[in-house]
Amino acid sequence: MNIWLASGNLNKKTELSAILGNCGLNHKLLIPQDAGLIFDPPETGSSFFANALIKARELYRLLQERHPSLYEHGDPIIADDSGLCVDALDGRPGIFSARYGGKVSSNERNALLLEELGDAASRKACFVCAMVLLCSDDRFFLAQETLEGEIVKNMKEAAGMGGFGYDPVFYFPGLGCTLAQLSEEEKNQISHRGKAGKIIAKILTELI
């Protein structure tokens, strides 16, 4: 079964494919560039869910209009919008997580986050993932999950080579490590995307 992911993020493609595979789905996960499609929808929604739905509907429209050879009518489309919400920053960067600080590297973005947070006593934060499974424009399913943790105090405490984005500065007191220090399998078991992906995988299993 071909499943389309409304994203150009190769890290998300790899992560979600592993999550769905671990749920027993025999699938091939495709992204727009696999079919030569230019995909860059404006994320104008005011919530993670709204932006996920925008992306899902835009890819659905593109596939219906262009009908690339890899696409078969009825292929499910998944879109995910996720980000980091920090309590002491009033929920920032939130839905702007991927664009926080403009066109900078992940390391620079993490440094900016820590600079804004400063020496705030509360370091509580959570990752949020809204994941949409779109069957048609007006038929879709939503799963939204979170992962609770805290932000490290400075870049010297950032650690780990795994994951991507804010993972090196997102710390688990209970585990004594950052998200980036977990293996891919360990991360997918507990992460916001892993939790949402399992729900979507179950819905997909019931649909096919």
What does this structure look like?
The protein is α/β, with parallel strands linked by helices. It has one domain: Maf protein. It has five helices and seven strands; from the N terminus they run βαβαβαββββαα. A seven-stranded mixed sheet has the order 2-1-3-4-5-6-7. Strand 6 and strand 7 form a beta hairpin. Helix 1 packs across helix 5 and helix 4 crosses helix 5. The longest helix is centred in the N-terminal third of the chain and has 19 residues. The radius of gyration is 17 Å and the shape is globular. The protein starts with a strand and ends with a helix. 38% of the residues are buried. The mean pLDDT is 95.
Tag the structure with descriptive keywords.
208 residues; alpha/beta; seven-stranded mixed β-sheet; 5 helices; globular
Summarize the structure.
The chain has 208 residues and is an alpha/beta fold. The chain has five helices and seven strands. It has helices at 10-22, 48-66, 106-117, 184-190, 192-207, and strands spanning 2-5, 28-30, 77-86, 124-136, 139-151, 170-172, 177-178.
